[in-house]
Amino acid sequence: MERITTGHINFTYRAEVPTRGPSFILQRINRQVFQKPEVISANIRLAADYLHKHDPGYLFPEPVQGVDGRDLQYDESGEPWRLFPFLSGTYTVNVATSPAQAYAAAAAFGRFNRLLSNLPIAGVGETIPRFHDLAWRWQQFTDACERGVPARLAEASPEISQAKRFSTLVDQYRACLQSGALVKRVFHNDTKINNLLWWGDRHEPACVIDLDTLMPGYFIYDLGDLVRTLVSPVSEEERDVTRIAVRDEYYEAVVTGYMSAMEPVLTGEEIQLVPFAGKMMTFIMALRFLSDFLLGDVYYQTHYAGQNLVRPRNQLTLLEQLCGGQLPN
Ligand code: GN1
Ligand code: MG
Known about the structure:
Layout: E1 2-4, E2 11-15, E3 24-28, H1 37-54, E4 73-74, E5 80-85, E6 90-91, H2 99-115, H3 134-147, H4 150-155, H5 157-164, H6 168-179, E7 185-187, E8 196-199, E9 205-208, E10 215-217, H7 219-230, H8 248-262, H9 268-271, H10 274-295, H11 307-322
Antiparallel strand pairs: 1-2, 2-3, 3-5, 4-5, 6-8, 7-10, 8-9
Helix pairs in contact: 2-7, 2-8, 3-10, 7-8, 7-10, 10-11
Bound molecules: 2-acetamido-2-deoxy-1-O-phosphono-alpha-D-glucopyranose (GN1) and magnesium ion.
């Protein structure tokens, strides 16, 4: 069994069963993060049934059901595990290498959003409450600034000051919600580029994966995470901030790719908020990584000391560039 370490939350392995043919993706869900894993399963089931009915040809990776008909199995410590079929002939991408690839990725997530846009949200639970609520994440950040590990507060002092300079984005977020411009629909809520599989032969998107945060949300969350992870020539893990940039033609490709699928769904008021999406999601990730560093790495998996400070430093640099080197107004 081989561990796959690109995700920051769950524990994922590729499991080969030589005598049985296909391989599988075996995953232990992180119970600290997903306190109600059954909600994940129920949401995926609801979406799968909806897609089978309305778009039967759409490739949607569902977990394998056990003989008891359940897709979650608990081990003796009460940890939830599940199995996905491994889709052979596919690969993932961590950084976009052409505007055409960025367009295709954004269009694939846009299509996913469109196909689920009429799924009634009433039956869809929240797998992580207030997940992308920027006002709440700001509150968590200010709390972390008060009760964080003292040595870490000192070490991250430049990043803390840098983050505070973007607080007007929180006001803009609150204003967006209060205006009623955003329509709540079912979204993926984790559209980073490596949550998409590509066909190895055609180099086209195969399917969207990592459906743990499939739940009600706003389109700015999904478009914003696409912008955040597709426009820069380096990923959120890059330590050398001089390599971070907003590639204009990629930004254009992300927005047009996403809109090629979602424009018919979005209202005119929502379309006005397109420029806010990337800034909002880049800021929220900077705050979440930085808060986690301050609290002692309690949420995101890290593979070396200081990784949770590298990440917000990276995201704040990207955010500055998304704001054109200016503070947001
Ligand atoms: C986490 O599970 P993974 O690595 O795809 C996180 C996302 C972040 C992302 C940053 C449940 O996603 O919100 O955008 O890391 N998921 C959760 O890389 O917190
Ligand atoms: Mg993932």
